[in-house]
Write a structure and sequence with these properties.
By secondary structure, the chain is mostly beta strands. It has a domain at 20-78: Jelly Rolls (Sandwich), CATH 2.60.120. Helix content is 0%, strand content 60%. The chain is built from no helices and nine strands. The chain has strands at 3-9, 13-20, 25-30, 35-39, 43-48, 54-59, 65-67, 72-77, 83-90. The protein is globular. The mean pLDDT is 97.
Length: 92
């Protein structure tokens, strides 16, 4: 199971550090808030939408990306190395 650590949570932001070893999955979820992902490692994650559609998410160290509120998926590390990233959710 993926490891998560909430590093900051206040009225504006929630910052969570995620670590996924090979084979780890973040179960299906819906993002309530707009968010930014800041990769700490290189690698490829597999995102699976509720309808079963799969998308490869390529991570490059320091190359952040944003997603809107309402994004729904599960996430899986199908690679051979640990993947780590920071997720910043905009709460207000």
């Amino acid at each position: 199971m993926a490891i998560s650590e909430i590093q900051i949570e206040n009225s504006s932001f929630r910052v969570t550090r995620w670590e996924l070893e090979p084979g780890d999955t973040i179960p299906a979820h819906v993002h309530e808030y707009e968010y930014v992902v800041v990769p700490l490692t290189e690698g490829t994650l597999r995102a699976t939408a509720p309808d079963g559609a799969q998308t490869a998410v390529e991570l490059s160290i320091g190359q952040s990306y944003a997603r809107p509120a309402g994004a729904a998926h599960s996430i899986e590390n199908r690679g051979t190395a640990w993947i780590m990233f920071v997720e910043v959710e905009k709460l207000s």
